[in-house]
Structures are given as structure tokens and as C-alpha cells.
Amino acid sequence: MDADSIRAAYRRYARFYDPVFGNLLASGRHAAVKWINRRGGLRVLEVGVGTGISLSDYRKDNRVVGIDLSSEMLRVAQDRVDRERLENVEGLLEMDAGKLAFADGSFDLVVAMYVMTVVPDPQGTMNELERVCRPGGDILIVNHFAADKPGIRRSVENWMAPFSKKLGWRPDFTLDTLMSGSRLKVEELQTVPPFGLFSLLHCRREAATAA
User: Fold this and answer.
1) Contact criterion met (CB below 8 Å) for 48 and 68
2) Mean pLDDT of 10-32
3) Residues with Cβ within 8 Å of residue 80, at least 6 apart in sequence
4) CA 183 to centroid of chain Cα atoms
5) Quick one: pLDDT band at residue 162, thresholds 50, 70, 90?
6) Are 185 and 206 in contact (CB under 8 A)?
7) Per-residue pLDDT for 12 more than 90?
8) Are 150 and 172 in contact (CB under 8 A)?
């Protein structure tokens, strides 16, 4: 995967993303936002905000910044923000998730839904998510992780892998690949519908230690 392939894929998806993928991936998205909405007063970064389909579900006392690599998807998201008057959305920015233009510790919580199989450098992106999350803050990942044991599902994922560029995501992406070299603490991993193909991963950045 590379940035140009990602942009090309989501340029194709932008017009019909919500009615097709929005419904298919709704369970994982709702599970993540429900988890976030247990608390208010948060500053949240949504990485890969896409068409902004999740933005109206956030608590109004949580401030949200969304980023995405696709300008076409962001235009749809901005139309949604304007139409629904989502005043808690601080901004929607075209940005590479692997090179975030935010200061260290800028957000209380960082969420990336259906993103990590797409980005060119998953480990580098995880490092960036950790960097912009405040010490003691939370990082939520909703993603497909390849089966960890041989079987039909793993065979299908391996068969699909050569088509990653056209699909716009990596079917054979593993959890171990994502967490390789990460200093984040894994707090919880749970499967979400449909068919248990996706997971909600909760990580926490280590709290700052007293000098």
C-alpha cells in the first residue's frame, strides 16, 4: 500500500461509501464511539474520519478533530458537519496518519476505525497515534486482523492479499504486525460484527512518571 493507491481507492469509494461500507462496518464504529462516550470533556482525534459518518454520534461535550488522506472523503464529511451543525467538530484536515501535524500529547483519546490495514506504515502510524495522545490517554483501533491459525479464513485472506492496492486495504494484516515495537499497553481486544471479522482494540499510553 502507498499514499497514491489509498487516495485512488477512496476517490472511487467516496460517492457510495456510506450506503455500502457505512452499513457493513456500522457495528465496529458504534462500539468504538459508545466506548468513547462513556466520558465527556475529551479532546478526540479520529484518524481516517472519511465521510464523517461517525461524527454525529459523539457526545456534544467531546471535541473532535478528524483527519483523512482523501480530499474527496473529507468534502463529504464537511458537508455533513455543516448540514448537521456539529459544533463540537473542531476541524477536518487532510493529513497523513503517519506524519501527524500535532504537538505531542494533544489529545485525550485517539481513535482509528478501519484504518490500520490501509496506511502505508502501520507501525509508524501507531507511533504517531501514541505521540499525539496524552500520557495516560487511550487509543482505540477498530480493524480486521488476519486469522492467527491456519484454516479457510486464513487461506482466503492470503489469496486476497495480492489485490491489496485495488481493494484499498490489506486482508492478511495481523495484530502482531500492528503491535510490533509498540510501547502501548493492550488493555482489551474484543471481536465485533459482522461475523467476528473485525476487532476493537483498546490500548493505553503509559502515564508520565514523576520526576
Assistant:
1) yes
2) 73
3) 51, 52, 53, 55, 56, 86
4) 19
5) very low
6) yes
7) no
8) no
Longest dimension (CA), the chain: 52
Residue whose cell numbers read 483498546: 202
Cis amide prior to 194 (ω within 30 degrees): yes
Query: What distance in Å separates the CA atoms of residue 107 and residue 96, rounded to the nearest whole number?
Result: 17
Q: What is the residue type of 106?
A: S
Cell numbers standing for residue 77:
464529511
Task: Give this prediction's pTM.
Answer: 0.83
- Nearest residue to 27 via CA among 201, 193, 209, 206: 193
Return the amino acid letter for 158. N
The phi, psi pair for 72, rounded to 5°, reads -65, -45
Q: How far apart are CA 102 and CA 120, in angstroms?
A: 19
Return left, alpha or beta for 107; rule: phi > 0 is left, psi -120 to 50 is alpha, else beta: beta
Tens digits of per-residue pLDDT, 98-116?
A: 999 999 999 999 999 988 8
- pLDDT of 210 > 90? The answer is no
Which amino acid, 48? G
Cell numbers placing 85: 451543525
